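Long-time lurker, first post. I've been practising inverse folding by hand and with some scripts of my own, and I keep getting stuck on stretches where the structure tokens seem ambiguous. Below is the full token string for one chain I'm working on. Before anyone asks, I'm not after the true native sequence, just a reasonable design that respects the backbone. If someone could post their per-position residues I'd love to compare against what I wrote down in my notebook.
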């Protein structure tokens, strides 16, 4: 069941990302700057043909193939561990959703629509898909560092309990 819920989370992430990008593209001129909280955050419509800080600009083939590989790996991992941690499932769903959101832009336009600008410090302008990828990746790291081993122990204990129960009833 959590596998299906995770796929829904990914789909909602993609849908929200694409709706916001559609609204930004249709209502904020390219390079236009609108203060949301003056001096803190603004909406600034840009197009990014690269990754963060425009790294790898012009390497569209890599920026298309890499997310496809990550999305495929996340799907396989989620399916194989579908009875596992909810934290792991949600984290990978967010990474997938964000990856798909930006992938749609790259395939459709060969660049990504970015619009959130942090005015407090010099940071690349980003979008909801980027937020999903970063939050999902952080959650996955937290899962791997603090919960993955206990998840394996729980799985081994459940497996052991099943073996003990089935062995006891067979005698």
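-- Answer (accepted) --
I ran through it position by position. Result:
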């Amino acid at each position: 069941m959590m596998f299906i819920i995770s796929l829904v989370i990914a789909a909602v992430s993609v849908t929200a990302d694409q709706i916001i990008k559609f609204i930004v593209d249709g209502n904020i001129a390219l390079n236009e700057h609108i203060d949301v909280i003056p001096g803190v955050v603004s909406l600034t419509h840009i197009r990014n043909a690269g990754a963060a800080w425009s790294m790898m600009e012009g390497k569209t083939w890599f920026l298309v193939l890499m997310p496809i590989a990550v999305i495929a790996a996340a799907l396989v991992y989620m399916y194989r561990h579908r009875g596992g941690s909810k934290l792991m499932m949600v984290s990978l769903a967010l990474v997938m959703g964000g990856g798909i959101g930006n992938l749609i832009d790259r395939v459709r336009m060969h660049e990504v629509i970015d619009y959130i600008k942090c005015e407090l410090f010099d940071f690349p302008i980003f979008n909801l898909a980027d937020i999903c990828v970063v939050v999902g990746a952080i959650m996955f790291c937290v899962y791997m560092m603090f919960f993955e081993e206990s998840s394996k122990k729980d799985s081994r204990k459940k497996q052991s309990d099943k073996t003990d129960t089935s062995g006891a009833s067979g005698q």
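A couple of notes from the structure itself: The first helix runs from residue 2 to 27. Strands lie at 33-37, 41-48, 112-118. Happy to go over any region you disagree with.
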